[in-house]
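[step 3/7] inverse_fold.run input=structure_tokens len=195
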């Protein structure tokens, strides 16, 4: 079973953030990208007709494109959120939405705490990176739809593989605002994250 469907405080992890987005007046629609066999998890938690669904792709970028394609053409912004991040707050989402409205794209994140080393091909330290300039990226990642579509066209044309949505915008040479988030907005990836 994918991690976002594991129980956390009596309900699947994915429903924690879904319920938050459902309550937000700033959110005009929600497109859930999931395997059809898990649709009932979301449908049971939302009012009838409140959700749209899209099929996942082979890679994250394919899933995001699928969700973007299912979204309303009138949307001012699209917010891509990883459902394995159940602890995002309304304040974080609103701040990221505001930054994206102003700058075209924004990503929630926190400054890294540990020292980060870059390694060479032989496993030796190549350099110590400046911690003050490093951010751990979270979700949501919020982008103007036209900008994201242009980024996907570039990714397809150039055969690029990107690991997050901000990278798509970066590939265009467009700015992405780093919206300060909270360290509590963790991504559940291991059993330790559940404790």
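[step 3/7] decode complete -> sequence:
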């Amino acid at each position: 079973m994918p991690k976002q469907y594991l129980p956390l405080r009596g309900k699947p992890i994915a429903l924690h953030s879904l319920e938050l987005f459902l309550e937000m007046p700033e959110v005009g629609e929600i497109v859930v990208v999931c395997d059809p066999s898990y649709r009932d998890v979301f449908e049971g938690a939302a009012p009838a007709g409140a959700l749209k669904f899209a099929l996942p792709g082979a890679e994250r970028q394919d899933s995001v494109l699928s969700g973007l394609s299912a979204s309303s053409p009138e949307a001012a912004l699209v917010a891509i959120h990883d459902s394995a991040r159940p602890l995002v707050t309304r304040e974080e989402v609103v701040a990221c939405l505001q930054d994206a409205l102003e700058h075209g794209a924004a990503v929630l994140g926190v400054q890294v705490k540990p020292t980060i080393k870059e390694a060479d091909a032989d496993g030796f330290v190549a350099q110590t990176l400046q911690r003050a300039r490093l951010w751990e990226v979270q979700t949501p990642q919020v982008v103007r739809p036209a900008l994201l579509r242009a980024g996907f066209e570039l990714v397809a044309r150039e055969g690029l593989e990107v690991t997050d949505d901000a990278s798509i915008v970066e590939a265009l040479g467009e700015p992405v605002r780093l919206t300060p988030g909270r360290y509590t907005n963790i991504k559940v990836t291991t059993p330790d994250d559940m404790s």
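[step 4/7] annotate
The two ends are 19 Å apart (CA to CA).
The mean pLDDT is 94.
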